[in-house]
Amino acid sequence: MEFLEIFLSANFWAAAIRIATPLIFGTLGALICERAGVLNLGIEGIFTAGAMAGWMAVWLGAGLFGGILVAALVGAMIGLIHAILTVPLGLSQHVSGIGVTMLATSAAYFTYRTALPDVTSPPRIEPFQPLNMPLLSDLPFLGPALFQHTVMTYIAIALVFLVAWVMARTPLGLAIRAVGDNPSSVDSQGLSVYGLRIGAVMAGSALMAIGGAFLTMAAFDAFFFGMVNGRGWICIALTVFASWRPKKALLGALLFGAFEAYQVRLQTEVGAVVPGEIFLMAPYVLSIIALVIAARGADYPRALLTPWFKGQR
Amino acid sequence: MAGQHRKAQAHDELAPVVLKIAGITKRFGALTANENVSLTLHQGDVVALLGENGAGKTTLMNILFGHYVADEGEILVAGAAGALEHLPPGSPQAALDAGIGMVHQHFTLAENLTGFENILLGVEPIFGLARGRSAARAKIEKIVTDSGLAVDLDTPVSSLTVGEKQRVEILKALFRDARILVLDEPTAVLTPQESEGLFQVVEKLAAAGLTVIFISHKLHEVLAASHRIAVLRGGVLVGELTTADADRGKIAELMVGREVPASQRSPMSPGAAVLKLDEVKVSGSDARRTLHAVSMVVHEREVVGIAGVAGNGQSALASLISGLVEPEAGRVEFCGDAVTTFSPRTFMSAGIGRIPEDRHHDGVVGAMTVAENLAIETLKDARFSQNGFLRFNGFQSHALEAIEAFDIRCSGPDAPTRLLSGGNMQKLILARVLENAPKLILANQPTRGLDVGAQTEVHKRLLAARERDAAVILISEDLDELFTLTDRIYVMHAGNLDDAGPTDALDRAAVGLMMAGHSAEATAS
């Protein structure tokens, strides 16, 4: 019954939440872009660039929150490239996004190698430490599972509710939802389609970069090649899974985190008999299954992938 | 209605001028879309801007709304104080600020938002909080009460009907205190009932001081709903008349530039039954796609009309006759033989030609050329393919013939079909259908959205097919069309098909009642 005992360890739940954190940032970012009608496949590269930029800023002495800020700015700038290509120029969002991923990934590696040509083991920084909350962190089981995370995890969860509120309850959220559904609706009411879309892509990209920065500044303490490892792509899938709703995105990210944490633990339990690759594959297979079920009724933003030009109806 | 008009006109003469379009000329390269057009509108006016497709109606309105800049001329709008002020050209924002609201033919609504949210869009400061929504709500509700534009403002627009979406669009303009409302082809997508409702609202708004311009190419609605008519032809304003003094023939002539002969069907004796449906049932996913035990028969040399408001099962009937759906029960006979295989291919090769309802989606492939679309249903023909390879020379020569014979206006056989106007696209489809000399032609709303000239052309071709022994089924919402073309009429309501009998013995009111589902009363009267 060791399969089920995993669920009883606080350690498993803590890992699930930790793994989910960058996915929460990334999925919120992808969701904002797509709600405005722009698919941002630059996400994988933006994760890498954010991870690199945040870490390097801290390594150069910027402080941890300074690092997050630098990562966000770098993300927003890369988002701006994607936005200019896809919004006013109306190029294919798929092609531009993949191009941006390759560009941002390579630029991050290039910067790292140029700054540190000779190191063999990556230099380490002092990352975010788990918070120690009075009373809460000392609770049995719940304390280690829920209340001993770094501040970035709590920021991610707070952002879920903030983004949900902005989308549902503010004029800005209204306009973003409208521009992703029918840009003419926004244009005919005197708002700028380009302004809204570019702004949304930049804001979304900034969140993606913060998700990347979590990897080097909280989960680990250094930058490695290939460390993003497909997390950006998972966020794209989670966005569909969540039907473009922030709270469902949180649920999806936690679910994926739990799959991932479970497979690592299962591997150590029964790894001797079953090849390890099966376990590595499992979270992705389960994600596909969950996606198939959840995406059937998915309500795509109607103008997603559709460029808009003024005067053309 | 007529009394109301006269009252409105008397009111016009005293009412202040709210809009003056002075000497507008607009050229696109060699094409002159508008030439020295001048028009003056008074408060409370309902002006119909009438003209064929391509006459320059929409161009003129786009200049008014700032989408285009005129090459010559200017536009003056009454300011808050009542004095006429120059409207800065090329700025939709300036037009909005001057109190001009425009409802485009293709709605500009975000479907995932509610009607209320669509109205608020762009009104609130974008980076602010959602304050003042209850005041906005009260204002909208007052407008709704005053105008009769009732619509559920709290469901997503995607679940509203086309008529309700249009109401939201009008509310958007009124909420921004529009004093001049421009409606571009407002009835193109509405059912007759919805159109009537719309014009009642327009009349009410005009009585309250709103000035309305509506663009149309439908004579009957222009006559029924406007106070004044301005006719554009080839970019020139060729006539301006009060509706009370206008008659149908006169304005049709103004609009087309020549006399429009009404299509006339010559008496003919029907021959053998071509298609026979006996208690045929089709159950679809919703009411629109369901038929409850319908029976009908169509003979050679006969046009049979299917009257009814859209969405009452016409699409199920059309799918059945095209071979797209298989009936659940009942018998279908074609030329005396029971039909057992239901597939579009067998139906087509048996001699059924179809003119689909949605010509853009189901009639042509927009991205393909005119020549390709003309050949697409008969690719196996030796002219078009040999040993599995296409013969482009065959495509070309065939297309040139069809373009000539059917007067399809396009730049040539290689023109992308999506660039054709609705009328020319329909001519292309007619050419393709009629070429195979079908025994039965299924024409589903064949003249919807076409101008008078193209309509006449379609009518002429269908009647010619009838003289050539074909049977024609004409599904239409337009009673004028049905009464001109058909020999017999069936009425469709809620998936049922009622035999109304020979057209010559029918009166419109009875058919109207049957369309609304009162078949018993209609037969009794």
Assign the CATH class of the largest domain in chain B: Alpha Beta
Major sheet size, sense and barrel closure of chain B: 6 strands, mixed
What gross morphology of chain B would you assign?
globular
CATH architecture of the largest domain in chain B: 3-Layer(aba) Sandwich
N-C termini distance of chain A: 62 Å
Per the CATH scheme, the topology name of the largest domain in chain B is Rossmann fold
Total strands of chain A: 0
Task: Let me know the average pLDDT of chain A.
Answer: 91
CATH superfamily caption of the largest domain in chain B: P-loop containing nucleotide triphosphate hydrolases
Described by its quaternary structure, the protein is heterodimer
Tertiary shape of chain A: globular
Major sheet summary line of chain A? none
List the main descriptive attributes of the protein structure presented here:
heterodimer, A: mainly alpha, globular, B: alpha/beta, Rossmann fold, six-stranded mixed β-sheet, 19 helices, 25% strand, disordered N terminus
Brief rundown of the structure:
Chain A has 313 residues and is mainly alpha-helical. Chain A has helices spanning 2-5, 10-35, 43-59, 64-86, 93-115, 142-146, 151-169, 171-181, 183-187, 193-219, 231-241, 246-270, 276-294. Chain A binds chain B through residues 169-172, 174-175, 177-179, 181-182, 184-191, 299, 301-302, 311, 313, and chain B through 67, 92-93, 96, 102, 104, 106, 108-113, 117-118, 120-130, 172.
Q: What would you note in describing this structure?
A:
The complex is a heterodimer of chains A (313) and B (525). By secondary structure, chain A is mainly alpha-helical. Chain A has 13 helices and no strands. Chain A has helices at 2-5, 10-35, 43-59, 64-86, 93-115, 142-146, 151-169, 171-181, 183-187, 193-219, 231-241, 246-270, 276-294. The longest helix of chain A is centred in the middle third of the chain and has 27 residues, at 193-219. Chain A is globular and about 65 Å long. Chain B has 525 residues and is α/β, with parallel strands linked by helices. Chain B folds into two domains: 1-99 and 179-185 and 208-259, P-loop containing nucleotide triphosphate hydrolases (Rossmann fold), CATH 3.40.50.300; 284-524, 3-Layer(aba) Sandwich (Rossmann fold). Helix content of chain B is 36%, strand content 25%. Chain B is built from 19 helices and 22 strands. The longest helix of chain B is centred in the middle third of the chain and has 16 residues, at 192-207. The two termini of chain B are 25 Å apart. The interface between A and B is medium-sized, with 24 and 27 residues.
